[in-house]
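Quick one:
INPUT:
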Protein backbone atom coordinates (compact mmCIF):
# COMPACT_ATOMS: atom_id res chain seq x y z
CA UNK A 1 0.00 0.00 0.00
CA UNK A 2 1.63 3.33 -1.03
CA UNK A 3 2.52 5.67 1.82
CA UNK A 4 2.55 9.20 0.44
CA UNK A 5 1.71 12.65 1.71
CA UNK A 6 0.14 15.00 -0.80
CA UNK A 7 1.75 18.41 -1.10
CA UNK A 8 -0.18 21.65 -0.77
CA UNK A 9 2.61 23.66 -2.37
CA UNK A 10 3.75 25.92 0.42
CA UNK A 11 6.41 28.45 -0.60
CA UNK A 12 9.75 27.80 0.99
CA UNK A 13 9.75 24.07 0.41
CA UNK A 14 8.71 23.66 -3.20
CA UNK A 15 10.43 24.36 -6.51
CA UNK A 16 13.51 26.44 -6.07
CA UNK A 17 12.21 28.54 -3.18
CA UNK A 18 13.57 26.41 -0.36
CA UNK A 19 14.79 28.21 2.65
CA UNK A 20 17.69 26.68 4.50
CA UNK A 21 16.53 25.79 7.96
CA UNK A 22 18.65 27.32 10.68
CA UNK A 23 18.85 26.63 14.38
CA UNK A 24 21.63 27.30 16.80
CA UNK A 25 24.75 25.32 15.97
CA UNK A 26 24.58 21.62 16.66
CA UNK A 27 25.13 18.22 15.14
CA UNK A 28 23.46 14.84 14.83
CA UNK A 29 25.58 11.73 15.36
CA UNK A 30 25.30 8.87 12.92
CA UNK A 31 23.99 6.55 15.62
CA UNK A 32 21.19 9.06 16.33
CA UNK A 33 20.29 9.17 12.63
CA UNK A 34 20.42 5.37 12.55
CA UNK A 35 18.04 5.16 15.55
CA UNK A 36 15.67 7.65 13.92
CA UNK A 37 15.47 5.74 10.64
CA UNK A 38 15.16 2.35 12.35
CA UNK A 39 12.28 3.52 14.52
CA UNK A 40 10.64 5.33 11.59
CA UNK A 41 10.80 2.20 9.42
CA UNK A 42 9.21 0.02 12.10
CA UNK A 43 6.39 2.46 12.80
CA UNK A 44 5.60 3.15 9.13
CA UNK A 45 5.49 -0.61 8.41
CA UNK A 46 2.83 -1.14 11.10
CA UNK A 47 0.70 1.69 9.70
CA UNK A 48 1.49 4.61 12.00
CA UNK A 49 1.30 7.96 10.21
CA UNK A 50 4.55 9.78 9.45
CA UNK A 51 3.78 12.80 11.62
CA UNK A 52 2.86 10.65 14.62
CA UNK A 53 5.90 8.39 14.12
CA UNK A 54 8.34 11.33 13.94
CA UNK A 55 6.67 12.98 16.95
CA UNK A 56 7.08 9.76 18.94
CA UNK A 57 10.78 9.61 18.02
CA UNK A 58 11.17 13.31 18.86
CA UNK A 59 9.94 12.71 22.41
CA UNK A 60 12.57 9.98 22.89
CA UNK A 61 15.42 12.07 21.44
CA UNK A 62 17.87 13.58 23.93
CA UNK A 63 19.74 15.73 21.38
CA UNK A 64 18.07 19.17 21.60
CA UNK A 65 19.32 20.17 18.15
CA UNK A 66 17.88 17.04 16.53
CA UNK A 67 14.69 17.41 18.59
CA UNK A 68 14.06 20.86 17.06
CA UNK A 69 14.65 19.50 13.56
CA UNK A 70 12.18 16.66 14.13
CA UNK A 71 9.65 19.14 15.51
CA UNK A 72 9.94 21.23 12.32
CA UNK A 73 9.57 18.09 10.20
CA UNK A 74 6.37 17.13 12.03
CA UNK A 75 4.98 20.60 11.38
CA UNK A 76 5.86 20.42 7.66
CA UNK A 77 4.25 16.99 7.25
CA UNK A 78 1.11 18.03 9.12
CA UNK A 79 0.82 20.96 6.71
CA UNK A 80 0.76 18.50 3.81
CA UNK A 81 4.37 18.17 2.67
CA UNK A 82 6.13 14.94 1.87
CA UNK A 83 8.81 13.46 4.10
CA UNK A 84 11.50 14.07 1.47
CA UNK A 85 10.60 17.78 1.29
CA UNK A 86 10.75 18.07 5.08
CA UNK A 87 14.12 16.31 5.14
CA UNK A 88 15.54 18.43 2.31
CA UNK A 89 15.31 21.52 4.52
CA UNK A 90 18.01 20.06 6.76
CA UNK A 91 20.93 19.08 4.47
CA UNK A 92 23.33 19.13 7.41
CA UNK A 93 21.54 16.07 8.82
CA UNK A 94 19.94 14.37 5.81
CA UNK A 95 22.29 13.96 2.85
CA UNK A 96 21.00 14.40 -0.67
CA UNK A 97 21.33 10.66 -1.32
CA UNK A 98 18.89 9.93 1.52
CA UNK A 99 16.45 12.64 0.44
CA UNK A 100 16.38 11.40 -3.16
CA UNK A 101 15.91 7.80 -2.12
CA UNK A 102 13.05 8.78 0.20
CA UNK A 103 11.47 10.77 -2.66
CA UNK A 104 11.64 7.73 -4.95
CA UNK A 105 10.04 5.59 -2.24
CA UNK A 106 7.21 8.08 -1.83
CA UNK A 107 6.61 8.15 -5.58
CA UNK A 108 6.69 4.39 -6.00
CA UNK A 109 4.84 3.54 -2.80
CA UNK A 110 7.66 1.54 -1.19
CA UNK A 111 8.86 3.99 1.48
CA UNK A 112 9.58 1.39 4.21
CA UNK A 113 11.80 -0.59 1.82
CA UNK A 114 13.76 2.54 0.92
CA UNK A 115 14.27 3.45 4.57
CA UNK A 116 15.56 -0.08 5.20
CA UNK A 117 18.01 0.37 2.31
CA UNK A 118 19.31 3.59 3.86
CA UNK A 119 19.67 1.84 7.21
CA UNK A 120 21.73 -0.91 5.56
CA UNK A 121 23.97 1.73 3.94
CA UNK A 122 24.52 3.41 7.31
CA UNK A 123 25.35 0.07 8.91
CA UNK A 124 28.00 -0.67 6.29
CA UNK A 125 29.52 2.81 6.58
CA UNK A 126 29.60 2.58 10.37
CA UNK A 127 31.24 -0.86 10.23
CA UNK A 128 34.08 0.46 8.03
CA UNK A 129 34.58 3.54 10.24
CA UNK A 130 34.67 1.35 13.35
CA UNK A 131 37.29 -0.91 11.79
CA UNK A 132 39.43 2.09 10.80
CA UNK A 133 39.19 3.58 14.30
CA UNK A 134 39.94 0.20 15.84
CA UNK A 135 43.05 -0.24 13.69
CA UNK A 136 44.39 3.18 14.73
CA UNK A 137 43.38 3.18 18.42
CA UNK A 138 46.07 0.82 19.74
CA UNK A 139 49.11 2.57 18.18
CA UNK A 140 47.70 5.97 19.16
CA UNK A 141 47.41 4.86 22.80
CA UNK A 142 50.95 3.42 22.80
CA UNK A 143 52.41 6.56 21.19
CA UNK A 144 50.63 8.73 23.73
CA UNK A 145 51.88 6.54 26.58
CA UNK A 146 55.44 6.67 25.23
CA UNK A 147 55.27 10.48 25.06
CA UNK A 148 53.97 10.78 28.65
CA UNK A 149 56.59 8.35 30.00
CA UNK A 150 59.41 10.16 28.18
CA UNK A 151 58.22 13.54 29.47
CA UNK A 152 57.98 12.20 33.03
CA UNK A 153 61.51 10.78 32.83
CA UNK A 154 62.96 14.03 31.46
CA UNK A 155 61.26 16.26 34.02
CA UNK A 156 60.80 14.07 37.10
CA UNK A 157 63.47 11.35 37.14
CA UNK A 158 66.52 12.39 35.12
CA UNK A 159 67.21 15.61 37.13
CA UNK A 160 67.72 13.48 40.28
CA UNK A 161 70.38 11.40 38.53
CA UNK A 162 72.17 14.42 37.05
CA UNK A 163 73.75 15.09 40.45
CA UNK A 164 75.67 11.82 40.17
CA UNK A 165 76.82 12.59 36.62
CA UNK A 166 78.05 16.13 37.36
CA UNK A 167 81.62 16.65 36.18
CA UNK A 168 81.71 13.23 34.53
CA UNK A 169 79.93 14.00 31.27
CA UNK A 170 82.86 12.67 29.24
CA UNK A 171 82.06 9.08 30.24
CA UNK A 172 78.36 9.36 29.40
CA UNK A 173 76.97 7.98 26.13
CA UNK A 174 75.55 10.42 23.55
CA UNK A 175 71.93 9.42 24.28
CA UNK A 176 72.34 10.34 27.95
CA UNK A 177 73.90 13.70 27.14
CA UNK A 178 71.07 14.45 24.67
CA UNK A 179 68.38 13.53 27.22
CA UNK A 180 70.09 15.61 29.91
CA UNK A 181 70.17 18.59 27.56
CA UNK A 182 66.46 18.12 26.80
CA UNK A 183 65.74 17.88 30.53
CA UNK A 184 67.54 21.14 31.27
CA UNK A 185 65.83 22.86 28.34
CA UNK A 186 62.32 21.71 29.36
CA UNK A 187 62.79 22.78 32.98
CA UNK A 188 64.39 26.13 32.08
CA UNK A 189 62.05 27.11 29.23
CA UNK A 190 58.85 25.26 30.16
CA UNK A 191 56.75 28.31 29.34
CA UNK A 192 58.24 28.48 25.84
CA UNK A 193 57.60 24.77 25.35
CA UNK A 194 53.95 25.20 26.33
CA UNK A 195 53.51 28.16 23.98
CA UNK A 196 55.27 26.24 21.22
CA UNK A 197 53.06 23.17 21.78
CA UNK A 198 49.90 25.31 21.70
CA UNK A 199 51.07 27.04 18.52
CA UNK A 200 51.97 23.69 16.94
CA UNK A 201 48.57 22.19 17.77
CA UNK A 202 46.81 25.31 16.46
CA UNK A 203 48.86 25.22 13.27
CA UNK A 204 48.14 21.53 12.74
CA UNK A 205 44.41 22.10 13.27
CA UNK A 206 44.41 24.95 10.75
CA UNK A 207 46.28 22.81 8.23
CA UNK A 208 44.01 19.80 8.78
CA UNK A 209 40.96 21.96 8.05
CA UNK A 210 42.50 23.54 4.92
CA UNK A 211 41.85 22.65 1.30
CA UNK A 212 45.57 22.03 0.83
CA UNK A 213 45.53 19.21 3.38
CA UNK A 214 42.38 17.73 1.83
CA UNK A 215 44.06 17.66 -1.60
CA UNK A 216 47.29 16.17 -0.22
CA UNK A 217 45.36 13.51 1.74
CA UNK A 218 43.18 12.64 -1.25
CA UNK A 219 46.19 12.39 -3.55
CA UNK A 220 48.05 10.10 -1.15
CA UNK A 221 44.98 7.88 -0.73
CA UNK A 222 44.57 7.33 -4.48
CA UNK A 223 48.11 7.47 -5.92
CA UNK A 224 50.46 6.07 -3.25
CA UNK A 225 50.61 2.29 -3.53
CA UNK A 226 50.73 1.83 0.25
CA UNK A 227 47.20 3.31 0.58
CA UNK A 228 45.66 3.04 -2.89
CA UNK A 229 44.33 -0.53 -2.68
CA UNK A 230 42.53 0.01 0.63
CA UNK A 231 41.23 3.44 -0.41
CA UNK A 232 40.00 2.12 -3.76
CA UNK A 233 38.18 -0.75 -2.03
CA UNK A 234 36.49 1.63 0.43
CA UNK A 235 35.43 4.21 -2.18
CA UNK A 236 34.40 1.71 -4.86
CA UNK A 237 32.43 -0.41 -2.38
CA UNK A 238 30.63 2.65 -1.07
CA UNK A 239 30.01 4.01 -4.59
CA UNK A 240 28.58 0.74 -5.88
CA UNK A 241 26.37 0.21 -2.83
CA UNK A 242 25.03 3.77 -2.95
CA UNK A 243 24.49 3.67 -6.70
CA UNK A 244 22.98 0.17 -6.71
CA UNK A 245 20.60 1.05 -3.89
CA UNK A 246 19.38 4.18 -5.69
CA UNK A 247 18.94 2.38 -9.02
CA UNK A 248 17.06 -0.41 -7.27
CA UNK A 249 14.69 2.21 -5.89
CA UNK A 250 13.92 3.86 -9.22
CA UNK A 251 16.31 6.80 -9.41
CA UNK A 252 17.62 7.44 -12.98
CA UNK A 253 21.24 6.42 -13.59
CA UNK A 254 22.63 9.90 -14.38
CA UNK A 255 20.93 11.43 -11.33
CA UNK A 256 22.05 8.54 -9.13
CA UNK A 257 25.68 8.93 -10.25
CA UNK A 258 25.57 12.68 -9.56
CA UNK A 259 24.13 12.13 -6.08
CA UNK A 260 26.53 9.28 -5.26
CA UNK A 261 29.49 11.38 -6.43
CA UNK A 262 28.53 14.18 -4.06
CA UNK A 263 28.66 11.79 -1.10
CA UNK A 264 32.29 10.80 -1.81
CA UNK A 265 34.83 12.92 0.05
CA UNK A 266 37.93 12.17 -2.02
CA UNK A 267 38.48 14.86 -4.67
CA UNK A 268 40.18 12.54 -7.17
CA UNK A 269 37.64 9.73 -6.88
CA UNK A 270 34.87 12.33 -7.17
CA UNK A 271 36.42 13.49 -10.47
CA UNK A 272 36.39 9.87 -11.67
CA UNK A 273 32.66 9.62 -10.83
CA UNK A 274 32.05 12.91 -12.63
CA UNK A 275 33.70 11.46 -15.75
CA UNK A 276 31.31 8.51 -15.60
CA UNK A 277 28.33 10.88 -15.38
CA UNK A 278 29.61 12.85 -18.40
CA UNK A 279 29.87 9.65 -20.45
CA UNK A 280 26.30 8.67 -19.46
CA UNK A 281 24.94 12.10 -20.40
CA UNK A 282 26.67 11.84 -23.80
CA UNK A 283 24.85 8.57 -24.46
CA UNK A 284 27.62 6.17 -23.45
CA UNK A 285 27.43 3.10 -21.22
CA UNK A 286 28.13 3.06 -17.49
CA UNK A 287 30.61 0.21 -17.98
CA UNK A 288 32.72 2.41 -20.29
CA UNK A 289 33.08 5.11 -17.63
CA UNK A 290 33.52 2.59 -14.82
CA UNK A 291 36.47 1.01 -16.69
CA UNK A 292 38.41 4.31 -16.47
CA UNK A 293 39.55 3.33 -12.96
CA UNK A 294 42.79 1.39 -13.49
CA UNK A 295 42.73 0.08 -9.91
CA UNK A 296 39.58 -1.97 -10.59
CA UNK A 297 40.15 -5.59 -11.56
CA UNK A 298 39.22 -6.65 -15.09
CA UNK A 299 36.82 -9.32 -13.81
CA UNK A 300 34.84 -6.65 -11.93
CA UNK A 301 34.66 -4.48 -15.06
CA UNK A 302 33.38 -7.47 -17.05
CA UNK A 303 30.71 -8.22 -14.44
CA UNK A 304 29.51 -4.60 -14.65
CA UNK A 305 29.38 -4.87 -18.46
CA UNK A 306 27.37 -8.09 -18.32
CA UNK A 307 25.03 -6.68 -15.67
CA UNK A 308 24.39 -3.64 -17.84
CA UNK A 309 23.79 -5.74 -20.95
CA UNK A 310 21.22 -8.03 -19.29
CA UNK A 311 19.48 -5.26 -17.34
CA UNK A 312 20.71 -6.45 -13.93
CA UNK A 313 23.05 -3.56 -13.14
CA UNK A 314 21.65 -2.71 -9.65
CA UNK A 315 21.86 -6.34 -8.50
CA UNK A 316 25.43 -6.72 -9.82
CA UNK A 317 26.49 -3.46 -8.14
CA UNK A 318 25.12 -4.53 -4.76
CA UNK A 319 26.80 -7.95 -4.98
CA UNK A 320 30.12 -6.38 -5.98
CA UNK A 321 29.82 -3.86 -3.14
CA UNK A 322 29.72 -6.79 -0.70
CA UNK A 323 32.90 -8.17 -2.28
CA UNK A 324 34.67 -4.83 -1.86
CA UNK A 325 33.42 -4.48 1.71
CA UNK A 326 34.74 -7.96 2.54
CA UNK A 327 38.12 -7.09 1.01
CA UNK A 328 38.17 -3.85 3.00
CA UNK A 329 37.51 -5.70 6.25
CA UNK A 330 40.23 -8.23 5.43
CA UNK A 331 42.72 -5.44 4.64
CA UNK A 332 41.90 -3.64 7.88
CA UNK A 333 42.38 -6.86 9.85
CA UNK A 334 45.79 -7.31 8.21
CA UNK A 335 46.74 -3.70 9.01
CA UNK A 336 45.64 -4.15 12.62
CA UNK A 337 47.70 -7.34 12.94
CA UNK A 338 50.76 -5.50 11.58
CA UNK A 339 50.33 -2.32 13.58
CA UNK A 340 50.29 -4.09 16.95
CA UNK A 341 53.83 -5.56 16.75
CA UNK A 342 55.15 -2.33 15.16
CA UNK A 343 53.69 -0.31 18.04
CA UNK A 344 55.19 -2.74 20.57
CA UNK A 345 58.60 -2.46 18.90
CA UNK A 346 58.32 1.35 19.03
CA UNK A 347 57.47 1.18 22.74
CA UNK A 348 60.41 -1.18 23.29
CA UNK A 349 62.77 1.27 21.58
CA UNK A 350 61.55 4.10 23.85
CA UNK A 351 62.10 1.95 26.95
CA UNK A 352 65.54 0.88 25.70
CA UNK A 353 66.61 4.51 25.12
CA UNK A 354 65.44 5.48 28.61
CA UNK A 355 67.19 2.53 30.26
CA UNK A 356 70.39 2.96 28.27
CA UNK A 357 70.42 6.69 29.06
CA UNK A 358 70.02 6.34 32.84
CA UNK A 359 70.72 2.84 34.17
CA UNK A 360 73.71 1.87 32.00
CA UNK A 361 75.63 5.12 32.70
CA UNK A 362 75.18 4.38 36.41
CA UNK A 363 77.02 1.08 35.97
CA UNK A 364 79.71 2.79 33.87
CA UNK A 365 80.11 5.48 36.54
CA UNK A 366 80.38 2.85 39.27
CA UNK A 367 83.08 1.05 37.28
CA UNK A 368 85.04 4.27 36.78
CA UNK A 369 85.01 5.00 40.50
CA UNK A 370 86.65 1.64 41.39
Amino acid sequence: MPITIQSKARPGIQKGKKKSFSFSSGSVKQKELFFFLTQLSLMVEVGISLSRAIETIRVQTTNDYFKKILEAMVKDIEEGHQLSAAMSRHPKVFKSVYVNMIRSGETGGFLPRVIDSIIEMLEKQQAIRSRLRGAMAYPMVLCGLAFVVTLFVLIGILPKFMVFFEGKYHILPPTTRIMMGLSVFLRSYWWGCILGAVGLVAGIRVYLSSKAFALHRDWLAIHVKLFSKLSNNIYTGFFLRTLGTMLENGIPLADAISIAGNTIENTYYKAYVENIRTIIEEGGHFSKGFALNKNIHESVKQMITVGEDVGKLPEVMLKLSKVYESETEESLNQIASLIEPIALVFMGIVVFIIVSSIILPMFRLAGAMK
